[in-house]
Give the backbone structure.
Amino acid sequence: MANSTADMRLSGGHPALELANTVDSRRGRWGPDLLRSFEDLLVLAERLDLIDRKAALRLRKQAENDLTKAAAAHADALALRESIHRLFLSEDVATSYPIDDLRLVEDHARRGRAHQVLAEKGAGYAWTLLLDDLPQLAQLFAIKAVDLLIERDRRRAVRECKGSNCGWLFIDHSKSGRRMWCSDATCGSHARIKRFRSRLKGH
Ligand SMILES: [Zn+2]
């Protein structure tokens, strides 16, 4: 079992879903919560290559120097995470997006967009968040979540892993589109063992 964002599996297939998955389990039990500080969010962003080393160092220093601001940025990230989770969970159950959650994610993304600058990227340019202020990190995840929403008509629905004590969200990028589990090695194999045992009992 994962203890932190440093060692959790990244199996959501999209940064917004990895953020939603920072609660180790949402089915059966809730928790443990792997996003316990601003630092945990920063570690996740680093693992997802959303932030370069220089910007990470800058935010890490800022967080250490202003604990109140870091706590506020962390609280924002938690609220955003829950909204992102409810938004994309609604795709699994094929209901409409919860409007309050949509607005919260939109609001964070909009604030992030206001800070973006046009920066060189590869041979061209891209709207880029400089990440020079703590709240921008959650805003970056919100921008990613909005990107995922915008792509909805070009991708499969986000799904929820139905493994017991799981509930992680993932997007199925496989060719067949028949992925059932957040991870075949964990929830998938638990389910296979469970099925095998119940078959043994039945005979
Ligand atoms: Zn799972």
Notes: The two ends are 33 Å apart (CA to CA). The domain at 15-202 is CATH 1.10.3300.10 (Jann2411-like fold).
